[in-house]
Specification:
With 156 residues, the chain is mostly helical. The protein has helices spanning 2-10, 31-51, 62-88, 92-105, 109-122, 127-155, and strands at 15-18, 21-24.
């Protein structure tokens, strides 16, 4: 993922010779195709994750799950609207980042990507959120969570 981020952000400065002319290497990247493949992979992942859930085993916990889910949604919405959106600059990138943050807060990085994709599909694509959220969500959060969980398990 880090290599892809480096390539994506540096390719605009690379030029190569084609038919005697120098052309930008950036034109080799078909962004629409990349986004389509990413959306297909994300949809497959989320579909497989949902299929593997055995919700009938949690039948007796339905009411506590609903209470927890409603309170979590309300807290994430309030945090995104009153704290994150103003701190991120109150622009379109901030809105897409808040959508990703809500998805991450209610699930994991794939949920954040799905939320951001839905917003970008309706309006227009935003580059910064799709660079920030996967790196922070997938790499740093997983590494930090692994360390924290290990510390607390050793304290038990």
């Amino acid at each position: 993922m880090i290599l892809a981020a480096i390539v994506r952000n540096t390719i605009r400065f690379v030029r190569y010779k084609e038919n005697g002319e120098w052309v930008k290497a950036e034109r080799l990247l078909d962004i629409e195709r990349i986004i389509s493949v990413g959306n297909i992979c994300l949809s497959l992942f989320l579909g497989m994750a949902m299929i593997s859930l055995r919700l009938w085993e949690f039948q007796s916990l339905a009411l506590p799950f609903i209470v927890i889910l409603v309170s979590q949604v309300l807290m994430m919405a309030a945090f995104a609207y009153f704290v994150a959106f103003p701190l991120l600059g109150r622009d379109y990138d901030a809105a897409v980042l808040c959508a990703g943050m809500c998805g991450f807060g209610l699930g994991a990085t794939p949920n954040a990507m799905a939320n951001m994709s839905a917003v970008c599909y309706k309006y227009h694509y935003a580059v910064k959120p799709f660079l920030i959220v996967p790196i922070i969500g997938a790499m740093f959060a997983d590494l930090i969570n692994t360390g924290i969980i290990t510390i607390f398990l050793n304290l038990l």
